[in-house]
Each structure stands twice: as structure tokens, then as C-alpha cells.
Design goal:
single chain; alpha/beta; rod-shaped; about 35% helix
């Protein structure tokens, strides 16, 4: 009966301390409340009537009624809490992903591209209130998914990203410019690009610096990530006869100065991911840096439960009064 019940006036339960005092009072005063008659013998009287022995039942009913009144005064109630959230500052995000052949290097497990896709998917799931789009680039760039709030579409598109969809190469300027083009019309208060590459700009007809200037003009912050271990990495070197890659050790070259300049110019930050764990930490840090403001409204509805206790107390007192004036009348 008391499951999920709260009491608005719990201090009223201190009144229950009066019950033991009432019991003591009844114990010491009960003889004074009963008429007595001294006679020489009780022969001829019916002494088998058990009703006088039940007389304390009337007092018990009063005590129970008092308990019910105290519970009612404590105001038992249930509470139904509902919340409604409203995004007050949404963020539009474009993730620009390098899909050149070097992204198949195995310094991250199982390779750079597969490791990135796993971490990026976790990042997307952690941004339920934001719109996210995908841009892929190698020797050129294109929009894989326009910015959308439908995370299932973005995750599905991310899963489909593979090497070989574009001409090989690393056109950082094209990747960044394509991302800016996706965000320039956005009405979001905050617009960011997460640009990841594992190489040096060597293709494309848009210079990275020009693309960075466009990002600044449209108020788009850019986080840049250089992906690759320090030193050499097992990377694709040539094709085998069956069309598969032949791997060999190759020096990891990342234009960190360029990535730092892009991040600094747009108000972002540069990161270097040398292994799977570091890549995860970088996306977690970006997730913390770019917080979406959510306003939460909480509604509480109280349902008062004291009325049944009032009715119970009234019922017990009515029963006590009826018994006192009918069955027990001749014994009181």
C-alpha cells in the first residue's frame, strides 16, 4: 500500500507516540469506567457470556481510527515526474574523412580507415541532438551525406566508406572546401568541421589555405587530426597480380604545420593520433569541447492519497459507535 508513496507532512508521524500513552491511560482507567456491584453469590447469573471480554475491542477500534487520521494528516501522495527537453543551441558538424590508399596502413588496427570508422561511429552516437554530415576525399572530394539529424542514415553511410571510390591522392583543400560548402548555408549557432588526414596535400585545385579562409568567412570552426604513427608504418606500396595491395614499410609523412595553421585560423584545435587509443581520446575530447546546450523542463504531478485514510478512520469510528450502542450497550 505504501509502495511509491511519499508524505508531504512526515512530521505528523510523531503523533503516533501518543498511542502508547493512550494504551496506558486505558489500562489504568478501565476499572473506573465500569460499574461494580458487590453481592454474596453469583449463582443464578449467566456467567458464560463472552461479550464483556470483547469490550477492549471498542478501544482498539478507536486507536486504529486515530492511526488512520494521523496517516491522513501526513498527506500520503504519489509523484509523477515527466521531463521535456529542448535543444537551445544545436551544432552542425561535418566529418571530412581521408580515403586515400595510405589510410589502409596497418599502424592502427586493423588499419587506419577501419579504426577511424569505428571511432567516428561512436562519436556520432554520442551527438543525438546535432546534425551531422560526411565528406570523403582523396584526390578529389565529395559529399557522402548532407548534414542531417537522422543518425541511422549517417551511420549507414559511414559504414559504406571504403578505399577506391575516388582517385588516389590527398587533396586536403578539396576536402575542407567541400565541407565548408555543406555548412555555409547552415543556420546553426555553432558549425564545425572535423578534418582527418594521414598525409600531405598533393592534389586538388583548391589550396588548403584558401579553403581555411572560406571557413573563417562563414564562421566555421575546424578541428584537424593527423593520423599515423611516428616513424614507419606498414603501408600499401604496389599492386599484386590479383589486384590486392602489396605492403611494405613507409615513412609516415603528415603536414602537421598545415593542419595546425588551419585549426588556428578557424578557432579549432589540432590533434595527432598515433594509435587506436589516442584516436578515441581525440574524438572524446572534441565531444567534450563542443557541447550542445539542452534545456530541460521538469513537470511534477502529485496525486493525494489521504482520502482513503479519512474514510477508513470514519468507518472505524462508525463501527465503534454502532457496537457501543447496540451489542455492548448493556455492558458499558
Amino acid at each position: 500500500m505504501f509502495k511509491d508513496i511519499e508524505f508531504a507532512n512526515p512530521d505528523m508521524f510523531w503523533l503516533l507516540l501518543l498511542l502508547p500513552l493512550a494504551v496506558l491511560w486505558y489500562f489504568f482507567k478501565r476499572n473506573e469506567q465500569t460499574a461494580s456491584l458487590k453481592i454474596s453469590t453469583i449463582k443464578g447469573f449467566n456467567t458464560n457470556n463472552f461479550l464483556p471480554k470483547l469490550k477492549p475491542l471498542l478501544f482498539a477500534l478507536r486507536l486504529l481510527a486515530l492511526c488512520a487520521i494521523i496517516v491522513a494528516m501526513a498527506r500520503p501522495q504519489t509523484k509523477d515526474v515527466s521531463t521535456k527537453t529542448k535543444t537551445t543551441e544545436g551544432i552542425d558538424i561535418v566529418m571530412a574523412i581521408d580515403v586515400s590508399s595510405s589510410m589502409l596502413a596497418r599502424d592502427l588496427k586493423p588499419n587506419r580507415l577501419a579504426a577511424l570508422k569505428k571511432v567516428a561511429a561512436d562519436f556520432i552516437r554520442k551527438r543525438p541532438s546535432d546534425r551531422i554530415g560526411l565528406v570523403v576525399y582523396a584526390g578529389e572530394g565529395y559529399t557522402k551525406t548532407p548534414i542531417t539529424s537522422d543518425k541511422s542514415i549517417v551511420l549507414s553511410a559511414l559504414k559504406e566508406i571504403t578505399y577506391g571510390q575516388l582517385n588516389d591522392g590527398t587533396a586536403i583543400g578539396m576536402g575542407l572546401a567541400t565541407s565548408v560548402n555543406r555548412l555555409k548555408e547552415s543556420k546553426a549557432i555553432s558549425k564545425i568541421i572535423i578534418l582527418l588526414t594521414d598525409g600531405v596535400n598533393n592534389m586538388g585545385f583548391i589550396e588548403p589555405q584558401t579553403a581555411a579562409d572560406l571557413a573563417v568567412e562563414f564562421g566555421i570552426k575546424t578541428y584537424t587530426i593527423g593520423l599515423g604513427t611516428n616513424g614507419n608504418a606498414l603501408s600499401p606500396m604496389a599492386y599484386n597480380a590479383d589486384g590486392s595491395f602489396r605492403y611494405g614499410m613507409r615513412q609516415v609523412e603528415i603536414d602537421e604545420a598545415l593542419l595546425k595553421d588551419i585549426a588556428k585560423a578557424t578557432g579549432g584545435k589540432y590533434f595527432r593520433a598515433t594509435n587506436n587509443e589516442k584516436l578515441e581520446e581525440i574524438y572524446d575530447e572534441i565531444n567534450k569541447l563542443e557541447k550542445t546546450e539542452i534545456e530541460e523542463f521538469k513537470y511534477t504531478r502529485y496525486d493525494e492519497k489521504f482520502r482513503p485514510w479519512v474514510f477508513l478512520a470514519g468507518g472505524l469510528l462508525l463501527i465503534e459507535w454502532l457496537l457501543r450502542n447496540t451489542i455492548f450497550r448493556s455492558f458499558i
